[in-house]
TrEMBL record:
Gene of this entry: UBE2W
The species this protein was found in: Gorilla gorilla gorilla
Domain of life: Eukaryota
Assembly mode: Homodimer. Interacts with FANCL. Interacts with STUB1/CHIP.
SUPFAM superfamilies the UniProt entry points to: UBC-like (SSF54495)
Catalytic activity: S-ubiquitinyl-[E1 ubiquitin-activating enzyme]-L-cysteine + [acceptor protein]-N-terminal-amino acid = [E1 ubiquitin-activating enzyme]-L-cysteine + N-terminal-ubiquitinyl-[acceptor protein]; S-ubiquitinyl-[E1 ubiquitin-activating enzyme]-L-cysteine + [E2 ubiquitin-conjugating enzyme]-L-cysteine = [E1 ubiquitin-activating enzyme]-L-cysteine + S-ubiquitinyl-[E2 ubiquitin-conjugating enzyme]-L-cysteine
Protein name: Ubiquitin-conjugating enzyme E2 W
All residue ranges annotated as the UBC core domain in the record: 6-158
Single GO biological process annotation from the record: protein monoubiquitination
Length: 160
């Protein structure tokens, strides 16, 4: 019970922060939170002056009962999945803070800022080299993927 109370307290705090001071181009989809405090949709707009300027995306955040000690499940959802070397066509995002580099000190806002930064620094719209194979063989939950991170290239090593 105490774990659930701590989870709810943390999520409510982050919800307020996202509503009152959202990262640039990000808006909490209020309807999504009315359905469940543990599943949010954040509407996102591509930053001005980037390859994604004017494009609209949606991020799905799912929080387990172990949050914030366990990272949220975060993926793109909806009609428009960004074409990016670290974003698979099924919405899965290869970003180390979503898995092994997660820390309880991070928040929804810091994840949003990292994703904005990742998209904004993109020089060429293209899918990851293993997109077709990954999308065919991966788990529905991107947190079940064993990611291999490297400066210039990335690979998914399949299911955990």
């Amino acid at each position: 019970l105490a774990i659930m109370q701590n989870l709810l307290k943390r999520l409510q705090k982050e919800l307020l922060a996202l509503q009152n001071d959202p990262p640039p181009g990000m808006t909490l989809n209020e309807k999504s939170v009315q359905n469940s405090i543990t599943q949010w949709i954040v509407d996102m707009e591509g930053a001005p002056g980037t390859l994604y300027e004017g494009e609209k995306f949606q991020l799905l955040f799912k929080f387990s009962s172990r949050y914030p000690f366990d990272s949220p499940q975060v993926m793109f959802t909806g009609e428009n999945i960004p074409v990016h070397p670290h974003v698979y066509s099924n919405g899965h995002i290869c970003l180390s803070i979503l898995t092994e580099d997660w820390s309880p000190a991070l928040s929804v806002q810091s994840v949003c800022l990292s994703i904005i930064s990742m998209l904004s620094s993109c020089k060429e719209k293209r899918r990851p080299p293993d997109n077709s194979f990954y999308v065919r063989t991966c788990n529905k939950n991107p947190k079940k993927t064993k990611w291999w991170y490297h400066d210039r290239c990335l690979k998914s090593l399949g299911k955990k």
